[in-house]
Model the fold of this input.
Amino acid sequence: MSEQDCEVRAGGDIIFRVADGAAILQLNRPAKRNALSQAMWEAICAALAEAADRPDVRAFVFTGLPGVFCAGADLTALKSGDREAAARYREISLRGYAAVRDFSLPTVAVIDGLCIGGGNNLALACDIRLASPRASFAIPAVRHGIVYDRPTVTRLVELMGSGRASHLLFTAGRIDAARAAETGLVDILTEDLDAELADFLDALRAADMPTLLAIRDTIRQVR
Done:
């Protein structure tokens, strides 16, 4: 693939491009508030693999739509009664979270509006979470009979502490952006997500990449 910006669509639900050293994946399923389907997870994994092979990529960015990052998993497969379909969805979603966590370069979630369930898990898998004041967060798994995977719960506890993580998981309650920033779920709360992201990507472009990646590896070792 050339060094030019590129765009790849998967059923209109994912927009993926590489621009100025950043791989940017936008969730684009407005009719379902960006609920993650199996096809979307497959596209996410493919985009991560493509970005990992590109020497011009220094970071991977996840974004949503204005007012909604992601309303969670598409529960159609999980509630259809088709056990095989449910198992396939769970397998691809777990593989997707792992692919984000294990991606070789810095990962960022840019959150404007709803960030619920599986969307929250996707953001948790990233290194850094930027959010606007209208972002809100919830994990309603307890209402849907879904037991979360250990890596996701571990990350939530790392960021929020066991008590706050337990409260969020046990109650399925929603917290606003200010509370999320106060408790560690959000790293940067900003009125201007575009400017904050641009500043971050500028800093990455100015960094010595081997040094940055060594620092990132050390951070991950001491979590």
User: Anything to note?
Assistant: DSSP finds nine helices and eleven strands in the chain.
